[in-house]
Amino acid sequence: MYRSKNCGELRIVNVGEKAVLAGWVQKTRKMGGMTFVDLRDRYGVTQLVFNQDVNSELCEKANKLGREFVIQVSGLVSERSNKNTHIDTGDIEILVEQLNILNEALTPPFTIEENTDGGDDLRMKYRYLDLRRSNVRENLILRHKMTFETRKYLDENNFLEVETPILIGSTPEGARDFVVPSRMNPGQFYALPQSPQLFKQLLMVSGFDRYFQIAKCFRDEDLRADRQPEFTQIDCEMSFVEQEDVLNIFEGLTKHLFKTIKGIDLNYNFPRMTYADAMKFYGSDKPDIRFDMKFVELKDHVSGKDFVVFDSADYVGGICASNCASYTRKQIDELTDFVKRPQIGAKGLVYIKYEDESSIKSSIDKFYSQDELRSILSIFNAQSGDLVLILAGEKVKTQKALNELRLEMGSRLGLRDKNVYKPLWVIDFPLFEWDEETERFYAMHHPFTSPKPEDVQFLDSDPGKVRANAYDMVVNGVELGGGSIRIHDSKLQNKMFELLGFTPEKAEAQFGFLMSAFKYGAPPHGGLAFGLDRFVSLFAGLDSIRDCIAFPKNNSGRDVMIDAPSVIDSSQLDELNLLIK
């Protein structure tokens, strides 16, 4: 055998035993007649000792070892005189008696250590080396544990894991599909699933009343830190349920993962916030509630003072940052520059500093008296030492900008601690969203989301007023997952297609098989999908999902390690009846 123990296994109780280890050379150190080698594998690091006085030939061989050489050693476990409290094996070392070089290695292009000197592009090109780093490896171990515990919880709650197809038909609503040409059906294409949505609904029709899948999903969309072209969902569906049933089951899953993985008891009912309140108080459908700083609307309180910025604005709103009245002009200017960034889009920033009762300073004191400023402060319940920050403009755009400012202030004030978790449900989303450019309604989630029963009456007269039986799980400002109760009535489903601009022919072409299935007895059903990558990155304290995926793509959707996507051979194009335009 290549090893009797792994490199993270030996302890002080093993002193005096013989051991065989195998792994990669982390580093070597020569000190007088002694050579020390740190040997690493997936489980940890063990120090090896080579003594010139005991075996000069063996020591000389050890001196020629390079970083990342693959070696096998055997020797005696001994207590270290100079213990290392930073590693689990720090009380022992191996007095090496035999050394076998299994494979030499080129010098890696970056250090294989937790704090590497390799940049993102270099690490992604040599991802197989990057995965040897302990912190990256721990992310994948965390992912494994989370998927294991997810399966355990869902199995205990009578869910069945069922795989659904990867090659499906294209339904070009929402994000772009990745398409795959069919050689056997010239001129026709498969699509890669954006989610298993249609198939899990068909499974409900089939009588599999509780389904789940750790499902690969694909979306051809612009990328950012929390997006990849291929990602993984904890995808679930349930029959004979209402919204409350779904929320209870998956709040339970969330609590189970926090308990088993993080050792955190969330022994309370998660708060619920309507979409309308989320937008009103936070300007986001995924509010970070680790800190307060809710929006205060001011339009009615500040108009009519000849300050054109407020008078001409559709919306005026602000936040109150505690104990920030000491902010300097430079700091205020930094915040102004922040909100004026193109991606945020505010035109400017108004501030009111409440230093004390006798000192209120503001960028609008030419238009508002001290008493009027004091009245504005009272609306915020501001205290001495607080700083009020105000934005004005078109409502939706300004609320989004104020959300970014709120998060920035939360970060500056240390209120967004990654070790504090505040989950909530956001509920009662609009069923439709209006697109000005195409002058039509789109489904905010997907066409199969059911409306609130009490709002069905508005489908014809005022579709924008209709709320959905939809819900999102949000933790620390991150949307971990979402779902809805589905439409199971064919007539209502056809009405949805009509409102979304589908002709009967188009609806039949894209979703005819589902509508046909519903005619054979579809149960009431609903579900939810968690983003596994986001869930893992939240638990790992990462800012990007990239480092909890074994082989991720970069921001251009490229795998720089295998150089994909790539040009394919002309003979393959001929087989597929394709021409490159």
Quick take:
The chain is α+β, with helices and mostly antiparallel strands and 581 residues long.
Global structural class: alpha+beta
Query: What share of the residues lie within helices?
Result: 25-40%
Number of strands: 22
Overall pLDDT: 94
Give a quick account of the main beta sheet: strands, pairing sense, barrel closure: 8 strands, mixed
Number of helices: 16
Distance between the termini: 56 Å
Strand content: 15-25%
Low-confidence stretches: none
Q: Strand arrangement, largest sheet?
A: 6-9-10-22-21-20-17-11
Radius of gyration: 30 Å
General form = globular
Protein traits:
globular; 28% helix; 16 helices; 581 residues; 5-stranded mixed beta barrel; 8-stranded mixed sheet
Give a topology summary.
Blueprint: E1 18-31, E2 34-41, E3 44-51, H1 56-63, E4 70-79, E5 92-103, H2 120-125, H3 127-130, H4 134-156, E6 160-161, E7 179-181, E8 189-191, H5 197-205, E9 210-218, E10 230-239, H6 243-262, E11 272-274, H7 275-282, E12 296-297, H8 299-302, H9 308-311, E13 315-321, H10 329-339, E14 350-356, E15 359-362, H11 370-379, E16 386-393, H12 395-412, E17 423-427, E18 432-435, E19 440-443, E20 470-475, E21 478-485, H13 490-499, H14 504-518, E22 525-531, H15 532-540, H16 570-575
Parallel strand pairs: 3-5, 6-9, 11-17
Antiparallel strand pairs: 1-2, 1-4, 2-3, 4-5, 7-8, 9-10, 10-22, 12-13, 13-16, 14-15, 14-16, 17-20, 18-19, 20-21, 21-22
